[in-house]
Amino acid sequence: MKKKFLVSLLAASMLSSVYPARAQQPTKISRIGILTSGNPTNRHTPAAKAFHQALRELGYVEGKDILIEYRFAVGRFQALSESAEELVRLNVDVIVTTATDATLAAQRATRTIPIVMGGIGDPVGAGLVASLARPGGNVTGIATTTVDLIWKRLELLKEITPKISRVAVLWIPTNTGNQLQMKETEVAADSLRLPLQPAGVQGPNDFESAFSAMATGGASCLTVLGSPIFVSHRARIAELAAKSRLPAIYPTSRYVDAGGLMSYGNDLGVERRRVAVYVDKILKGAKPADLPVERPMKFELVINLKTAKQIGLTIPGSVLFRADRVIK
């Protein structure tokens, strides 16, 4: 009996020395780098909140399981490369990007750290992935802009502006993503027989002169290409468009909420939630090369009737009927 007691005591002692040691082993904290050419206010947008909410629903707690390192280039493209290199030095586990140039900067900085892209127009054309089905490198994620999507925006402008003469295109010629989008815009405009008037800018300081050039060139409406810089200054762009009485269409509803007339594009909240799913898969061991690039399935049309009234435009009922949201 005494022998059995001593054996039990010894076993208990051994277990007590093993399990506390296991319990004290620190949980690995994964680092997520977020790289964008926008500004720090972007971390508080509904899309950014959707990304964080999706991570929480996937079981991640910031400060416990993950740390998020934000890097904002604030429109300075050289800063994108510097910020990407900084994230690589921090040895983050995955880099999340929100535009073509940011993704290119991250890819130049590393070919080993996984990169999850969001809001990329043509990742194949930009050389980011070999194909959508088989990315083949360290980049995967969501590709948003297609020729069909841009074609739809121009078609909507044609519907609301029957006597359309020339479509101004606000873009950044030095931006890789905008270069690809402009090619797609030219293809779509040619199919719809719409003359284009490119209005290139380098940054916010060029906005006024660009809108003056639109007026001089006889533009009757406007389409704005996708860029974090434009998003950061969306209220100013919307104001200039209204002042010029130009019916304008934008790539996301954030412009319309800031006073823009109309937007047609993918739901950014849904997109960012899908980005979080990619991050989760990668943190659990999946390789970007094996994760096909997704295309969004849902697009939304948003119209601001206040702005329409301000510029003296009547939106046809057939267009209003198709709107997912109308601001009155």
Tell me about this structure.
The protein has helices spanning 2-23, 46-57, 77-89, 100-109, 147-160, 176-192, 207-216, 228-232, 234-243, 253-257, 268-283, 305-310, 317-322; strands spanning 30-36, 66-72, 94-97, 115-120, 139-143, 167-171, 196-200, 221-224, 248-250, 262-266, 299-304, 325-327. It has 2 domains: 30-144 and 268-298, Rossmann fold; 147-266 and 300-327, 3-Layer(aba) Sandwich (Rossmann fold). The protein is α/β, with parallel strands linked by helices and 328 residues long. The chain starts with a helix and ends with a strand. The strands form 2 sheets. It has a 7-stranded mixed β-sheet with strand order 7-6-8-9-10-11-12, with helices on both faces. A 5-stranded parallel β-sheet has the order 2-1-3-4-5, with helices on both faces. The chain is built from 13 helices and 12 strands.
